[in-house]
Amino acid sequence: MKKKGIICLLFMATMMMLFSGCTSPPGDGGTGTTLATKKITIAGSTTVQPISNQAVEAYTAKNPNVKISVQGGGSGTGVRMVSEGSVDIGAASRDLKDSEMEATPSLVTHTIAHDGIAVIVHPGNSIEGLSLQQIQDIFAGKITNYREVGGPDMEIVVIIREEGSGTRATFEELVMDGGGVSNSEDVLQKPSNGAVRATVSGNENAISYVGLGYIDESVKALQVDGVTPSTATIGDGSYPISRNLYYITNGQPTGEVKRYIDFVKCSEGQKIVEKEGFIPLS
After folding, report:
1. Can you name the residues that pair with 129 across neighbouring β-strands?
2. Domains defined for the chain, CATH in brackets
3. Rounded to two decimals, what is the model's pTM?
4. 72 CB-contact burial (10 Å; exposed 0-12 / middle 13-18 / buried 19+)
5. How far is the C-alpha of 261 from the C-alpha of 111, rounded, in Å?
6. What distances in angstroms separate CA 169 from CA 47, 60, 93, 110, 221, one per listed residue?
């Protein structure tokens, strides 16, 4: 009996060693084999970029066989690149245009977060808020001195985003009633939210707009029609300049691309959205 017990123990130990050698590493789909590296490419909106950067870090930590590259360029660039097949996912901070859908009817949008566009000035500016109409008049070139809106006697320097920016397109749609901003040579264009913030923080005369996630102590976000931009006021709809943020695919996503997008939309991904200063999906 003692001999049989020893044999049984040896048999069980051997089986445990065999099965322990089949334990699946993270990201191998449970097959117990080493998978080839999978690659995903993302390009587009600089507003969406902070979400992508953090989501990619978390996703690839769980799936080390997946490599994901993220680049900016603006929403227009993201839509163009995913349409032509040069990236897997386009990132956009605006709705698709009719012309884009007509050119590539297979484009599919995936809402990953909500956002607001904050109007910002230098922290030293005494202005605390403006009406939507005053903002429109400033960016249209009708108001050129802060004195005209209850501020200091100081010339206004308007900073805007470049052509193709989703933030600019949304601002022009929601604030400018679909029209453009002043075409004055004094209006400065910047290629990203970060560049806008840096310019405004260094110029006491400047006024511009950025996604809510780019607000920090280096700039002052103004109230609009008496409402401060925040996750709460954007979430409840009281702040008037808000939008959705999107991933865009050419056709319904499959495989690793679908798994990554699903991750961003799941609870863990939405915690990243909130941490980056945006509003998670309800």
Report:
1. 223
2. 38-114+244-275 (3.40.190.10), 116-242 (3.40.190.10)
3. 0.74
4. buried
5. 10
6. 13, 32, 9, 19, 20
**Distance between CA atoms of residues 12 and 68, nearest Å:** 42
For 222, other C-beta atoms within 10 Å of its C-beta total 20
Mean pLDDT by 10 residues, the chain (282 residues): 45 41 39 71 95 98 97 95 98 95 98 95 97 96 96 97 91 88 85 96 97 95 97 90 95 98 98 93 84
Give me the phi and psi of 237, to 5 degrees please: 85, 5
- SS3 for 20? helix
Residue that has been written with the tokens 């709809």 in this structure: 237
Residues 6+ apart with CB under 8 A from 149: 127, 130, 134, 138, 143
Distance CA 116, CA 221 (A): 11
